């Protein structure tokens, strides 16, 4: 079976973890600090605060900006559930805005329609690895005095005109979950230029303790700390990130070259000036195609190719968000796309013959 995702790990990560284990400092320590320094530079931001998941990064970011009860936070309905759950964790209200059919990203025009005097922030999601329309979104945010939190969990090392993912909002959030472009199994990080936000994030991740050496509390906090074991892996992953990104792009281009010729298949659209990091290579299976999306997924499975639907149900139709009064038909683009999308393998370890197996499977339909 050709897997949909595979972590790109080697002896370098094994050695780095071994060194940490032998050092005796296995929780948050010097490796975490070193990774924070390197990752903030990588994103072109002043501060990086590691945490132990992307979900924790989002929750921490919303704490840092002071989002809470009575606030509305605008986000996309087509995303991983953690994006919107983080809003609920703060007792705020998730307000969805529809997406664009070309990029799968939140539509700035729809954001405008959803702004009220309660709106505090927008959580943008750089979906599948391509950045949102930040020129427009940041303009809307500025005009309406809103903060932008960038959920860049799928987009590490993507960029727009050379400016990297995570640097477009007030705070950028990343995940290092096992399927993500760089990984330590479970992990996350926030980046920002705002000193006050960085300090709030720092105490929030360590039970509210202003310093790890003190028992003074700046407020409520959680235990969201990353370990040096994870950070040591990430330091190695960061050295490989260009290679990983380049490989994903090459694999995506290879698939697109052939799949774009097939009637009823819409290949991913890479917008002008954008570097798409291809966390997921996602096609749209339209009505003109010979098989339905689900039949295609079954067919590929029989041919030894795994595929995935990210995500099958827009969040406004999921139980714990429906209670805000959302119903079918509220976000027609997200609803249509969720029925058409199918992600195919494009991870960096794929061999040419595996890519050809995928292409041949399509041609044999
Ligand atoms: C992976 C992901 C998250 C959550 O990350 P975890 O590390 O799994 O908690 C949040 N948002 C998006 C868009 C993601 O893809």
Task: Based on the model shown, name its key terms.
365 residues; alpha/beta; 7-stranded mixed sheet; 3-stranded antiparallel sheet; 12 helices; 13 strands; globular; binds pyridoxal-5'-phosphate
Short description:
With 365 residues, this protein is an alpha/beta fold.
Describe the model.
This protein is an alpha/beta fold. The protein has twelve helices and 13 strands. It has helices at 11-23, 30-43, 54-64, 81-89, 108-114, 134-143, 195-204, 228-259, 293-302, 319-322, 332-340, 352-363; strands spanning 47-51, 72-75, 93-96, 119-125, 147-151, 159-160, 163-164, 171-175, 188-192, 265-266, 274-275, 281-285, 341-344. The chain has a seven-stranded mixed beta sheet with strand order 1-9-8-5-4-2-3, sandwiched between helices. A three-stranded antiparallel beta sheet has the order 7-6-11, with no helix packed on it. α3 (54-64) packs parallel to α4 and α3 crosses α7. The longest helix is centred in the C-terminal third of the chain and has 32 residues, at 228-259. The radius of gyration is 20 Å and the shape is globular.
